């Protein structure tokens, strides 16, 4: 059984309640950010539960994912290493995307440590991603002092920003570099192709399924392997940076 909550903890809680009513053998969730009601159901459920996408070792449920904070750190060091100094971050327009806020925190903290004062732009809440990226690019490039690089919370936002910049006559990356997150299928097909950070989506799925089967006794458990649940994103450098 599958359900999508699109960053809504209320919708997730409703789905979890419905799923648990069917007495599943196991439950896999995306992200560790839940409503109090979902947290209570997780704590009381007598089945294997795996949280994917994030990784915070102190969480009680088994987690398979990566550190979004470290993604932000990597993005900041990459752009700074390329020589960019007027650098902005654009948040997701989906207000429940708390993982993106962790990427923001890692990004801004690292730039501050490097002596760069980062800018943060917050699009209108729940604006469609491409439109939110467009809004961000137009607003940031409308200032007297403009950024020379922008890290967008995801590739949809980045694509909207890149296209809006080109429409306004900007040259990407000469006037402003664009970096995304997600490595969506369209990223290499944009012109210029989109630099981005690629999450280990396939590895997360395989490892999460393996952990479920191990917890159910279907697969043998190697204690050394069982601890290897922290994965890492890969920076994909293309033309936009």
Automatic annotation (TrEMBL):
Is this entry keyworded Acyltransferase? no
Keyword annotations for this protein?
DNA-binding, Transcription, Transcription regulation
Fetch the InterPro entries from UniProt: LacI/GalR-like_sensor, Peripla_BP_I
Listed CDD domains? PBP1_GntR
Sequence ranges assigned to domain Transcriptional regulator LacI/GalR-like sensor in this UniProt record: 76-241
| GO molecular function annotation | DNA-binding transcription factor activity; transcription cis-regulatory region binding
Family annotation (Gene3D superfamilies): 3.40.50.2300
Q: Which domain of life is it from?
A: Bacteria
Extract the Pfam families matched here. Peripla_BP_3
Keyword check for Transcription regulation, yes or no.
yes
Read off the PANTHER family from this record. LACI-RELATED TRANSCRIPTIONAL REPRESSOR, TRANSCRIPTIONAL REGULATOR
| Name by which UniProt lists this protein | Transcriptional Regulator, LacI family
């Amino acid at each position: 059984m599958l359900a999508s909550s699109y960053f809504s903890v209320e919708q997730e809680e409703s789905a979890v309640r419905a799923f648990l009513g069917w007495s599943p053998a196991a439950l896999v969730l995306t992200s560790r950010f839940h409503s109090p009601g979902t947290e209570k159901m997780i704590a009381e459920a007598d089945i294997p539960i795996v949280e994917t996408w994030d990784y915070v070792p102190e969480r009680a449920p088994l987690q398979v994912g990566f550190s979004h904070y470290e993604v932000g750190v990597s993005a900041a060091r990459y752009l700074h290493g390329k020589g960019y100094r007027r650098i902005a971050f654009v948040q997701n327009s989906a207000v429940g995307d708390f993982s993106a806020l962790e990427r923001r925190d890692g990004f801004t903290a690292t730039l501050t440590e490097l002596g760069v004062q980062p800018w943060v732009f917050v699009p209108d809440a729940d604006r469609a991603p491409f439109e939110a990226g467009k809004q961000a690019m137009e607003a940031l490039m409308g200032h007297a002092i403009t950024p020379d690089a922008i890290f967008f919370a995801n590739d949809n936002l980045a694509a909207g920003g890149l296209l809006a910049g080109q429409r306004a006559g900007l040259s990407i990356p000469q006037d402003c570099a664009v970096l995304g997150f997600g490595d969506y299928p369209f990223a290499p097909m944009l012109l210029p192709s989109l630099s981005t950070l690629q999450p280990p989506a396939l590895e997360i799925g395989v490892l999460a399924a393996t952990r479920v089967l191990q917890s159910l006794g279907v697969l043998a458990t190697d204690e050394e392997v069982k601890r290897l649940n922290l994965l890492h994103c890969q920076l994909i450098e293309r033309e936009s940076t």
